[in-house]
């Protein structure tokens, strides 16, 4: 080979490798389906799960995917945590099946935020790396009612309930009263449904500072459920911000009791936190899912909602107190009966909660050995968390920002 040819080949190889290196850094990750394909899919549940897995894998340093329960028909109720900061926002969609454009919207919001994070860009003039690394954790649940959405896309487009024929957004404990007709179905008691039980457990264990639920349609925002004084002022300020951003109309606080026992109602009344219901997709009611042609305008109006809400939250003076420890075991939320406590720098878990882990799988000798080193707090037996986790061959990580233990 002549010197010129060798040089030429080396130059080509160099150009090729530097080009591929360049493209691999800047190219956005690929996804198995587009958002439009997911919306038009016959298995929205499976495709949403796949997309959440892909998002979690593509941005593993800043996301955490976990399960908060299972639906009536045993589908996963999945949450993606985005960010490592101490202020916590929960955004969910599709309590009502035919309103599942909110599922697509929240998947898009997640992707938009993560792409800005990876590219070190701003959204709404706010540095997203700073926001997610240090300030905020978003918890997204794009599909509150996966069974209902599957019923909706499998030939019953007007479907409104879960698989038990309960309206999940009338199943929360906020001025709940029993009424079961063909169009209004509260369930037998508040939180009778596994889907609302899972949302309740998540909210009570993570202790969000603010929550938001996407519904359709109407281009309106519900924000009021009896708040008084400073809480009312605080929540009206958020509502006005959301109104200005989306162009949606605020629903008047008068006659707020005409619709009760919704997710937002419960957050405001029982958790005492700001909470908003956004009805996307046009000024109208719905009898079937919003046509896909509406999506671009829905996206335009709601693109900035998570970040703008988060930055307003950071300016809030009083936050929800972090009183409860959360535990996520094998990627599933565990409802603890007692907080995990720290004594002289060592973490202890109550014996009862330890038994909800794999404790029973340990042989008797090890159980006795662990029990021998147990301590008593407020009359209850506690075990050393590290020793238990070690015996089970698991690892434990404590996330101080959101007061959560992860064991897997
Ligand atoms: Zn709705």
From TrEMBL:
InterPro entries from the UniProt entry: Peptidase_M14
SUPFAM superfamilies the record matches: Zn-dependent exopeptidases
EC assignment: 3.4.19.11
Top EC class of this enzyme: hydrolase
Cofactor(s) this protein cannot do without: Zn(2+)
All residue ranges annotated as the Peptidase M14 domain in the record: 41-305
Organism superkingdom: Bacteria
GO biological process, one term: proteolysis
Pfam families xrefs: Peptidase_M14
Signal peptide residues on this chain, from the entry's feature table: 1-23
Entry keyword Protease: yes
Transmembrane annotation, as ranges: none
Gene Ontology terms, MF aspect: metallocarboxypeptidase activity; zinc ion binding
GO CC list: extracellular space
UniProt keyword Nucleotide-binding, yes or no: no
Coiled-coil boundaries: none
Residues at the active site: 279
Keywords, comma-separated and alphabetical: Hydrolase, Metalloprotease, Protease, Signal, Zinc
Family: Belongs to the peptidase M14 family.
Name of the molecule in the record: Gamma-D-glutamyl-L-diamino acid endopeptidase 1
Source organism per UniProt: Ruminiclostridium hungatei (Clostridium hungatei)
Lineage, uppermost ranks: Bacteria, Bacillati, Bacillota, Clostridia, Eubacteriales
């Amino acid at each position: 080979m002549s010197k010129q040819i060798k040089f030429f080949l080396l130059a080509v190889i160099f150009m090729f490798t530097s080009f591929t290196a360049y493209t691999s850094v800047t190219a956005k990750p690929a996804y198995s389906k587009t958002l439009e394909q997911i919306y038009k899919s016959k298995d929205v549940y499976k495709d949403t799960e796949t997309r959440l897995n892909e998002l979690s894998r593509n941005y593993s340093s800043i996301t955490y995917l976990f399960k908060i329960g299972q639906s009536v028909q045993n589908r996963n109720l999945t949450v993606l945590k985005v960010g490592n900061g101490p202020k916590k926002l929960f955004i969910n969609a599709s309590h009502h099946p035919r309103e599942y454009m909110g599922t697509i919207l929240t998947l898009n919001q997640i992707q938009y935020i993560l792409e800005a994070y990876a590219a070190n860009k701003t959204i709404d003039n706010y540095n997203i790396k700073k926001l997610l690394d240090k300030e905020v954790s978003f918890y997204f649940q794009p599909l509150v009612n996966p069974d209902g959405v599957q019923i909706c896309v499998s030939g019953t487009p007007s479907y409104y309930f879960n698989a038990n024929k309960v309206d999940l957004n009338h199943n929360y404990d906020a001025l709940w009263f029993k009424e079961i007709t063909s169009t209004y179905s509260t369930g037998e008691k508040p939180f009778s449904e596994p889907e609302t039980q899972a949302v309740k457990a998540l909210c009570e264990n993570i202790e969000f500072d603010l929550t938001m639920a996407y519904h359709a349609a109407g281009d309106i925002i519900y924000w009021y459920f009896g708040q008084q004084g400073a809480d009312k002022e605080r929540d009206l300020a958020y509502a006005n911000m959301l109104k200005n951003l989306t162009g949606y109309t605020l629903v008047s606080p008068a006659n707020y009791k005409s619709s009760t026992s919704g997710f937002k109602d419960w957050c405001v009344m029982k958790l005492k936190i700001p909470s908003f219901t956004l009805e996307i997709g046009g000024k109208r009611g719905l009898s079937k899912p919003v046509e896909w042609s509406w999506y671009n305008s829905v996206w335009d109006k709601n693109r900035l909602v998570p970040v703008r809400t988060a930055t307003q939250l950071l300016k809030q003076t009083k936050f929800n107190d972090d009183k409860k420890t959360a535990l996520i075991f094998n990627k599933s939320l565990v409802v603890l009966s007692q907080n995990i406590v720290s004594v002289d720098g060592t973490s202890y878990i109550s014996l009862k909660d330890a038994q909800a882990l794999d404790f029973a799988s340990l042989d008797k000798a090890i159980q006795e050995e662990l029990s021998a080193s147990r301590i008593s707090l407020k009359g209850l037996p506690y075990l050393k968390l590290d020793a238990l986790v070690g015996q089970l061959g698991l690892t434990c990580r404590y996330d101080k920002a959101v007061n959560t233990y992860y064991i897997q």
